[in-house]
Amino acid sequence: MIFARIVYALNWINVGAIFVLMASDVGAGVSGLGIVTAAFYLGIGIFQIPGGVLAAKWGPKKVVVLGIFIFSFSVLGTAVSTNIPELAVLRFIVGAGMAFVFAPGIVIITRLLRGGKSGMGVGLFNSAYDLGGLVALSGWVAVATFTGWRLSLITSGGLGIITGILAFLFVPEDEVREEFRISTRPLLEVVKNKQLILIGLGTIGFDVGNTIISGFMIYYLVSIKAASGTVAGLVTSLVTVVPIFAALWFGRAYDVIVKHRTVMILAMLASAGSLVFGAFPTIYAAILCSAIGGVVAGVGYTFAFAGARDLNRAGKEYEGLAISWVNSLHLTGSFLPPVFFSYVVETLGYSQAWLWSAALTLVFLVPILLMVERWRH
User: Fold this and answer.
1) H or E element at residue 83
2) Can you give the residue ranges of every domain in the chain?
3) What is the pLDDT of residues 177-214, one digit of tens each?
4) pLDDT in tens, 322-358
5) CA 220: distance to chain centroid?
6) What's the DSSP call for residue 172?
7) Helix 336-348 to helix 30-46 angle, to the nearest 10 degrees?
8) Are the C-beta atoms of 69 and 168 separated by less than 8 Å?
């Protein structure tokens, strides 16, 4: 599962990392990157709930394996794309496949850990994602430069297929009760849970920074600041390097901290601050932007997804659905930041785009402020 999560992250982030190489072949600039990124987030957001429902009905392992194969074959398809509409459709399908992997994967990891602690399970899973993001941002630009962007996508898609086979063979079988049946009442209990809705909407605030930094920073530094692809990749990779450790540490901290909401509020303020650094035209400001953005992403996502599991009141079979519901809300909302950022870039310039994105982040403090302070049972 950890290896699958690493390759999952590689295929999530690598298109943004190598888009500077793809742009001329698909005839697009920053607006095209915004469209493709938004399509991906719509796919991964919309299909979270179907993934959670299927996990409750079939068991998490079957759904994870299905999702891995869907996104991996779709990545192979992107390798032969020739224009933005084709790329957008395929990235939407990649997102849909990934929607089947995340929440059921957390359920599997948490159940395999001794004691089933939510924070540690989510922290470990998110650290694996960040390790894959590091490969995508720091190494995949070099791979794509050497082999060509199309072959690099064939490689990452092929790795995905391998992880699907390994998950099918080695992940323990699902513990599905034969008498269990999905019913409307617990489904509605999850979907109507006010705390789950608030944490899902609030987490969009972390998506603003994470999406823009991981998706646009390399393109920004190469095309506007004339940085080399290697330097741009290393700077941007800080948004994934730091959370490798932050997610694990804060995963442990989540299990002992009482004031979860307060931590989320402080992290959201820091996330907005990281984007302000992006507005300054120096490589050092970009480093601070990525590094601080990485810390707060590690905190925010770990607390959000561990909180989703603990705030679930519909029974353990619906843990995956509760996480999927929170993930659906914030990822569907995540189509907005790349569209917003690319629009402001084209109308007001990059500096204003970073500043207005920081302001957009603060809007999503409101749902977190409305939450209860204690999240665990």
Assistant:
1) none
2) 2-170+194-369
3) 555 566 677 778 888 889 899 999 999 999 899 889 98
4) 877 888 888 888 888 999 999 999 999 989 999 999 9
5) 20
6) P
7) 160
8) no
